[in-house]
Design goal:
The longest helix is centred in the C-terminal third of the chain and has 19 residues. The chain has a single domain, classed as Rossmann fold (3-Layer(aba) Sandwich). Strands 2-1-3-4-5 form a five-stranded parallel sheet, sandwiched between helices. It contains eight helices and five strands. Helices cover 40% and strands 10% of the residues.
Length: 235
């Protein structure tokens, strides 16, 4: 079996914009695996080795933000669930795939994993490619964690006003909604809760029209709670 170092050497040849379905590490400006990103990944691997994770959050900066603006909401909503947050800012589908293939979920058996990913792929990949990347992540989670239920979230809306990017995200969500099997995978799209009546996004929810404030994380937690508890309780 190849060592992690050997795998990194091979994968270093890929650019940042590799296919959305092909596992790949994040690269630095010199085309080498990003050391800071690898360090965070290795930290998650260590958490997994210790076990005791019943509730796992997986994703990009929006998930990572539960450590920032969402910190207090996270503590109030999830601390009793034995949670772990494996979100990394800037990640795309291929990066999450690589992390899953390289130890991040080895040693844990979460009751539920919440996945939201794909917004960082929108400039480099087509709707079909992004949906395929998300599908690949779901299939990998099912393969490695057969007893874990997956709560797949629709990618949140972004941009101040309705635009082409939002339309693409809506198209992605329509495709990945088909992954809901009513049993082990449930799809939940509550993006409309972040919008004003006229379809705009307020800075009180997303100050940069992408990342959430504490108020935004409260909306997320409240919208997800009923479905999450149903899954945790085996319904």
């Amino acid at each position: 079996m190849k060592s992690l170092a050997a795998v990194l050497v091979v994968l270093a040849a890929f650019s940042q914009d590799v296919e959305a379905t092909k596992p790949a590490p994040r690269m630095d400006k010199e085309g080498k695996p990003d050391a800071k990103w690898i360090g965070r990944h290795e930290g998650f691997v260590e958490i997994a080795k210790k076990g005791g994770v019943d509730f796992l959050l997986m994703g990009d900066s929006i998930t990572d933000g539960w450590r920032g603006g969402g910190k207090k909401v996270y503590a109030a909503s999830f601390d009793e669930l034995k949670p772990a947050n494996f979100g990394i800012g800037g990640d795309r589908t291929q990066h999450v795939l690589w992390r899953l293939e390289n130890g991040e979920i080895d040693g844990i058996k979460p009751k539920v994993t919440v996945l939201m990913i794909g917004t960082n792929n929108v400039r480099a990949n087509t709707v079909d490619e992004i949906a395929a990347g998300i599908t690949a992540i779901v299939k990998t989670l099912q393969s490695k964690l057969p007893e874990t239920k997956i709560l797949l979230l629709g990618v949140f809306p972004r941009s101040k006003d309705p635009d082409a990017t939002r339309e693409r995200l809506a198209a992605i969500n329509k495709k990945i909604a088909r992954l809901d099997d009513g049993k082990t995978v449930k799809f939940l799209d509550f993006g409309v809760k972040f919008l004003e009546d006229d379809g705009t996004i307020s800075r009180e929810i997303m100050p940069d029209y992408l990342h959430l404030t504490r108020k935004g994380y409260r909306i997320w937690a409240d919208a997800m709670e009923p479905t999450l508890w149903e899954m945790l309780e085996g319904k």
